[in-house]
Specification:
There is one protein chain. By secondary structure, this protein is of the alpha+beta class. It has 3 helices and 10 strands. The relative contact order is 0.24.
Length: about 170
C-alpha cells in the first residue's frame, strides 16, 4: 500500500546574493524532490527584514508541495537545498542566501527538537501568511484556524509584491 500524499507548504526566503535567482533555483529544487510534486507557487514578495536591521530586504514566497515523504525526511531534503545554496546559520533571523521553512504538513501538528509544525512564527509573519493565502484563501492551519483571520493577513506593512505571476519556480 502506497503512502497517502500530503499537501505541505514551504516558506522560501533570501536576502543575500541574488535573492530572486536563489528562490527560482530553490523552486527547481522543490520540483525535483523525490516522492513529491510541486503544486503551486505564490508570487514573490519583497519584505523588510525581521531581526538585525542592518541587512538587506528579503524576497519571500510560499510553495505548495504534495509529498509522501515523512515530515523529518522532507525537512532533511529542504536543508539539503539550503546547503546547496551556501546557507550558513550564524545569526538568528540574520541574513541568508536561502531559507526554506516547513510551514504546514497537512493538518499535522509536530513538536520535536528539530521540527515544529505549524511553523511557530507563521501566525506573526505577513511575508508568510499573505503568500499562503495567495495559494489558498481559505487555508486552515491546525491550532490556528483560518489564516485569513490572523492579524498578519491584514498587515501589509513592509511587504510589496515583486512578481504578480506564479511562474517563477519554472
Amino acid at each position: 500500500m502506497s503512502p497517502i500524499p500530503v499537501t505541505t507548504y514551504i516558506g522560501l526566503g533570501a536576502n543575500l546574493g541574488d535573492p530572486v535567482a536563489s528562490l527560482v533555483s530553490a523552486g527547481q529544487g522543490l520540483r525535483a524532490l523525490p516522492q513529491s510534486r510541486l503544486l503551486a507557487c505564490s508570487p514573490l514578495y519583497g519584505s523588510a527584514p525581521v531581526g538585525p536591521a542592518s541587512q538587506p530586504d528579503y524576497v519571500n514566497a510560499v510553495a505548495a508541495l504534495q509529498t509522501t515523504l515523512p515530515p523529518h525526511a522532507l525537512l532533511e531534503q529542504l536543508q539539503a537545498i539550503e546547503n546547496e545554496h551556501g546557507r550558513v546559520r550564524e545569526v538568528r533571523w540574520g541574513p541568508r542566501t536561502l531559507d526554506l521553512d516547513l510551514l504546514l504538513y497537512g493538518q499535522d501538528e509536530i513538536a520535536t527538537s528539530s521540527l515544529i509544525v505549524p511553523h511557530p512564527e507563521l501566525k506573526n509573519r505577513n511575508f508568510v501568511v499573505i503568500p499562503l493565502l495567495a495559494l489558498d484563501a481559505g487555508l486552515q492551519a491546525p491550532g490556528l484556524g483560518a489564516l485569513a483571520a490572523l492579524a498578519a493577513a491584514r498587515d501589509r506593512q513592509g511587504l510589496h509584491i515583486l512578481d504578480p505571476g506564479q511562474g517563477w519556480a519554472g
